[in-house]
């Protein structure tokens, strides 16, 4: 308003600054001017919320006068700006198996608007991973709302939407990287394996192939595998994540027929995780072991006169192999005993190894023998081993003593001559006997069973020497007949008897007169034998029976002669010439042989002193109870074959 009028009245208005506003002036009918301030350019509160204007009104007078008004404009907010994220993309990481509620990151967004127009809210767009995460709508804090597993998914991309109250919004991306932890042990997968392997496989043979997987990463996924100790196997890496179990040394089923191979695989994480698997491997047999006998050699004893087929003993061999390879058969190897096949002596059971006697053994014919038994398995090719078996025959008291001297003959009469001047202890003769048995069965003792005069003679119990026990007198009979029994020490004992004729006289004529009746008996026996033979020849229907009897007698005598002369047992003859008794029972240092010649019708004859008889040697075996066989046969001292009497006189 201007109180002046006319030219001095209100003239115009001016507005400064006038960037956004302009003045619009209009004149009224009463002469006044109406002015309006009109918005000429849009306002932006975010750039300038308060605008200060100076409105100046001037008149037209001189000097020109003016009036001013200060106009303060407040720009009100309009929702003309959307929220803006501080970064278009956020990157964060979270450890797998982290607990729910773990803060991952914070999303930040701003809205330059004011008031409700500038209030921002956060939200995760719907996706497959949205359920695992949660964001605070007001402050944008992103937290874990589920379990994340590195082995299932290693990266998550989340779209976070920010919006204001006016409906304007913005979006940003959150990339969540899941970091690995060592939460998975190695997984062992058996790709191929052999349940059975032969024991003759060479070292380096593949037994099992394994695939090892560890879904963890980096060091947590690096795997090392080992086997249990003290087994002949090793594990090797073939290619990535593949391992092979191979034989590391020679296998022996007999040492171990089955192996439990434990494969343990561990990763390099902290702490380390491991897993294991046990593989059972059977070792199949190969025939690589020969049967082995329980002993290096065998000795067995069997008593003579055994029953054929008798079981002697059993040999046993064991084979460390298995099944058919361990099935042992026993075979008697071909050999001979004294030129006779050993199979005629013994047999061997192929399955059990029992040795049987094929025949009845005679100790006097064979004392021991040996043979070999082979044990063979059932493998292919078969393996075998041998063992030596020695059979020792044990003696039985099945043979009576055999009297060697005096010789009991039917052709001539042998008598020992004792002079009447003989002193006490005079050696008349010595009964010599042997027993083809052995040991105590061959220990002989001598006893005087009968005697014409028991008070005159005695027999040495051990040596068989017949000696006088008193002085010979003229009253003693010339003809003395002694019956000596020889017994062995067996159980039961066996015995033999021998008759010793002793002539007590100083001259041969006296002896001849007493022993004439012996010759007559001899002639009578010869005639009787002749008539018996003649009678048997006449009786023809008994010929066959007699022939069988004669053959049987011949066989028996032949067998006895074989026992006596062809066995290894001693045969002791009588040795008058320079007899030496190595057992210390006495000696006969000198001998004289006398030949008595007479005619059939004369009771007297000339007696001539003969030459010394041939000497025999008596050899003693210190390791035996008897003596060795005689090496020189006796020689008859009679020159005339028809002489009825043979007298041998001994002088000590």
UniProtKB/TrEMBL annotation:
Keyword Calcium included in the entry's annotation: yes
Origin species: Lates calcarifer
GO biological process per UniProt: anatomical structure morphogenesis; homophilic cell adhesion via plasma membrane adhesion molecules
Annotated membrane topology: Single-pass type I membrane protein
Gene3D superfamilies, per database record: Cadherins
Name the record gives this protein: Protocadherin gamma-A2-like isoform X2
TM helices/strands, residue ranges: 528-553
One example GO MF annotation: calcium ion binding
Gene symbol of the encoding locus: LOC108885495
Superkingdom classification of source: Eukaryota
Primary subcellular site in the record, as a coarse category: membrane
Location of the protein in the cell: Cell membrane
Gene Ontology cellular-component terms listed: plasma membrane
Keywords, in A-Z order: Calcium, Cell adhesion, Cell membrane, Glycoprotein, Membrane, Repeat, Signal, Transmembrane, Transmembrane helix
């Amino acid at each position: 308003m201007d109180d002046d009028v006319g030219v001095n009245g209100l003239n115009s208005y001016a507005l400064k600054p006038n960037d956004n506003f302009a003045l619009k002036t209009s004149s009224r009918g009463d002469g006044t001017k109406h002015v309006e301030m009109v918005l000429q350019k849009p306002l932006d509160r975010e750039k300038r919320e308060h605008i200060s204007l100076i409105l100046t009104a001037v008149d037209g007078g001189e000097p020109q006068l003016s009036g001013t008004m200060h106009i303060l404009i407040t720009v009100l907010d309009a929702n003309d700006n959307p929220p803006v994220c501080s970064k278009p993309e956020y990157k964060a990481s979270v450890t797998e198996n982290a607990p729910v509620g773990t803060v991952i990151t914070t999303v930040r967004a701003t809205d330059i608007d004011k008031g409700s127009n500038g209030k921002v809210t956060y939200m995760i767009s719907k996706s497959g991973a949205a359920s695992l995460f949660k964001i605070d709508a007001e402050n944008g804090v992103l937290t874990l709302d589920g379990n994340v597993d590195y082995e299932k998914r290693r990266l998550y991309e989340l779209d976070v939407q920010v919006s204001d109250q006016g409906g304007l919004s913005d979006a940003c991306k959150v990339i969540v990287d899941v970091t690995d932890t060592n939460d998975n042990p190695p997984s062992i997968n058996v790709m191929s394996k052999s349940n059975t392997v032969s024991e003759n496989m060479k070292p380096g043979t593949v037994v099992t192939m394994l695939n090892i997987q560890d879904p963890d990463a980096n060091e947590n996924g690096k795997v090392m595998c080992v086997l249990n100790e003290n087994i002949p196997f090793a594990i090797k890496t073939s290619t990535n994540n593949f391992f092979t179990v191979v034989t590391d040394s020679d296998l022996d089923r007999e040492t171990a027929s089955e192996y439990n191979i434990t494969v343990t695989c561990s990763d390099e994480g902290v702490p380390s995780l491991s897993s294991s698997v046990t593989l059972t491997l059977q070792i199949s047999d190969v025939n690589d072991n020969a049967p082995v006998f329980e002993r290096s050699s065998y000795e067995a004893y069997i008593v003579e006169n055994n029953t054929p087929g008798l079981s002697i003993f059993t040999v046993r061999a064991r084979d460390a192999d298995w099944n058919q390879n361990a099935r042992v058969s026993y075979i008697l190897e071909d050999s001979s005993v004294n030129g006779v096949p050993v199979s005629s002596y013994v047999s061997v059971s192929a399955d059990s190894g029992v040795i049987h006697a094929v025949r009845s053994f005679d100790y006097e014919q064979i004392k021991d023998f040996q043979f070999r038994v082979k044990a063979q398995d059932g493998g292919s090719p078969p393996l075998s081993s041998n063992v030596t078996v020695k059979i020792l025959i044990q003696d039985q008291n099945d043979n009576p003593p055999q009297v060697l001297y005096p010789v009991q003959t039917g052709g001539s009469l042998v008598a020992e001559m004792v002079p009447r001047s003989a002193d006490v202890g005079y050696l008349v003769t010595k009964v010599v006997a042997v027993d083809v048995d052995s040991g105590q069965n061959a220990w002989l003792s001598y006893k005087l069973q009968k005697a014409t005069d028991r008070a005159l003679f005695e027999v040495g119990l051990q040596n068989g020497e017949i000696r006088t026990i008193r002085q010979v007198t003229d009253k003693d009979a010339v003809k003395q007949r002694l019956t000596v029994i020889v017994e062995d020490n067996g159980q039961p004992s066996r015995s033999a008897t021998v008759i010793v004729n002793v002539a007590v006289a100083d001259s041969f004529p006296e002896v001849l007169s007493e022993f004439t009746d012996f010759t007559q008996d001899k002639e009578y026996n010869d005639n009787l034998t002749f008539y018996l033979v003649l009678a048997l020849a006449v009786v023809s229907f008994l010929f066959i029976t007699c022939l069988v009897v004669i053959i049987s007698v011949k066989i028996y005598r032949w067998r006895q002669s074989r026992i006596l002369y062809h066995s290894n047992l001693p045969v002791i003859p009588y040795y008058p010439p320079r007899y030496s008794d190595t057992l210390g029972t006495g000696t006969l240092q000198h001998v004289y042989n006398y030949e008595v010649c007479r005619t059939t019708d004369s009771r007297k004859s000339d007696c001539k002193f003969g030459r010394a008889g041939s000497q025999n040697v008596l050899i003693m075996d210190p390791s035996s109870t008897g003596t060795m066989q005689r090496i020189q046969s006796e020689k008859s001292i009679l020159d005339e074959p028809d002489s009825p009497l043979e007298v041998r006189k001994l002088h000590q």
